[in-house]
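pasting for ref
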Amino acid sequence: MEFGFWNVINILGALAFFIFGMKMMSEGIQRAAGSQLRNILRAMTKNRYLGVFTGFLVTALVQSSSATTVMTVSFVNAGLLSLVESAGVMMGANIGTTITGWIISILGFKVKLSHYSLPLFAIGLPMLFASKGKLKHWGEFIIGFAILFWGLSELKGAVPDLKGNPDALDWLQGFTEWGILSRIFFVLVGTVVTIVVQSSSAAMAITLTMCAQGWLPFDVAAAMILGENIGTTITAELASLIGNTNAKRSARIHSLFNVIGVTWMVILLPYLLPFLASIVESLFGQDPYSSEGMPIGLSAFHTAFNLTNVLLLLAFVPWLVKMSIWSVKPKDGEDDEERLKFIDTAIRTPELATIEVQKEVARFGELTSRMSTFSMDLVNASKEKKQRKLLKKLSKYEKITDKFELEITEYVTKLANQEMTNKTSKRLRSYLNICNDLERIGDLFFQLSKILERKIDEKLYFLPEQRTEVITMLELVDKAFNTMIENISNPQYDNVDITQAIADEDAINAQRDKMKGDNLNKLGNPDYNVQSAMVYNSVFSVLEKIGDHIINVSEDMTGVER
């Protein structure tokens, strides 16, 4: 039997076809049902037991435990899931990923699904050109499904059949005679394969194909599947690198869960495999130690291991959380206002990323509103030292608003380069408009600080009634900010009522008109300081402009302008 470079290229090409199909299928269903998946994750994770079911369900739907774990890590990063809730979802994802093995074992090797790939293309391709976004994404899912099984068929054909050449694998025998060290070795092989292909499902397909072609004995393949469970944790760990501390801890829980499970199974593997083989043989009529029955046997082993591991460790979730907290220390400056907290540089499908962007935009609004408090303190401060400190703080926050607007805009722009539904596109445009208004508010508060700095430098003073009116104006701006924050903190923009925001804006305009009239009436008074009056005029003019941008934020959410 000859096996050369060209055969290796064929195997790699078939594997690439399989992975591309899985990616297309997973992304298609995420785009088609992204909002539903988010709602499932948010609504069905009230406790760790519901979390397990949720993780299983989402993974079974998207056919990717990596997508589920990365989604979960991002939700923890966005503060939508606690560590305990995320642990349940991660565990459920491990059970859900075993569905892929069953599909491959029962359909991929028993039914010539490659024969059905072309009809699936015929169904899916017209859907790609549909004007309705969701129909188009379902078309992507169907075509991805067809490519996946076409790739699996090609992979099976590319891997040489060694059933008739058992001597070709004599070299493997030398690696199977070290007892527990052999099992650890093949666990490491499975881990490396999964890390290389970045998909436990693809690694599972490789393992099942090699077994079906007679390359691997049952116990070796079982050890490799255990390694694939460890390898799949790398995706979540990588996704968490640029997240906050809780995101890293969530990924660490996933790693701990899998490593602990693999450890006890490696020890018990020689005793449990014969028992499992007898059950599989009685249920399916196939011997898992034969190449024909091995795919079914391995799928049963994969499911039994993950299900048992969940049942054993579910009660120890609080302990896993404590271990993750102990192993992942908070970074210095973790809570620094100057960095984005909920979004990172990893680009996911827009439908799944919008919730993190919404949380970040809401945080951006809250940070900007602090400038109103600083301005109030500045107007009321009598000591120059405190005034200078507040001026520096306003200058610092103006730079923060610039940074936030730039980084959120860059992230949303990258998301906008991907295909998305019309609803998601509209939401992303709202985020860009809101960020633009918030950054402009920061500029205006900085402009206000410069006006008040001039007042301090030139030793100008407001009359008591002027100070009272400025404070009233700032209180109205504060009230408008509170309404704005309440609105942008609502994840359902379609349900936002801006009636109160409009009333707040009208009150600011009315106060501006009152202050402007009083100021003009007093300008002819010889006791009325003209320079102070000019500063006073500039103050209420800037505050009114801030009010305009605050109402703009609420209007940006609804897409309705007055």
